[in-house]
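Let's practice the habit of predicting before peeking. Look at the sequence and jot down your guess about where helices and strands might fall. Then scroll down.
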Amino acid sequence: MGDATAACMGKLAGKRIAIVAADGFEQSELLEPRQALHNEGAKTEVISLESRAIRGWNHKDWGQTVEVDQTIDDAKPDDYDALLLPGGVMNPDRLRMEPAVVAFVKAFVDAAKPIAAICHAPQLLIETGAVAGRKLTSYPSLKTDLKNAGAMWVNEAVVTDRGLVTSRRPDDIPAFNRRMIEEFADGIYHRSPRRAVR
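Done guessing? Here is the structure:
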């Protein structure tokens, strides 16, 4: 079976996924989840502050560049079924300072669309008010910030609460990808509310 045929039959066939990132995203946290989404038939678009390519961070140094499909000023949340937020220290710290990015992400929260955020990415979600009352995880250094914002923080590989999927670090990517695909495919808001950890 060819890749194109597999994509047409994937769990996410016909889904359009936004990936919001800036320079300094953790390379594996964008590339590996994006490939997992493609493998299930999703179409992804990288959205950033400018139209130029953005540079990833690979452990301790700059890594690969990724082409940007749309700028945040041109992208429309209504065009997407779900949102992926890669981590990295620099990436969410820059994005949370941009009102247009916060508004874009908040539109997914308000529309009850699934969001997957890994590592430091939940830092951006704090700005939207999305973490209050939700069980989630993140890179451990964000624990206090998230608890102060009203989140119920736990140290687990992957946590799902009402369509929000979170993980701690690159080692958690396989579990993160599995749960992200499940949520993006089924849409947790179309089922009974639950809190689940895998």
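How did you do? The longest strand covers residues 43-48.
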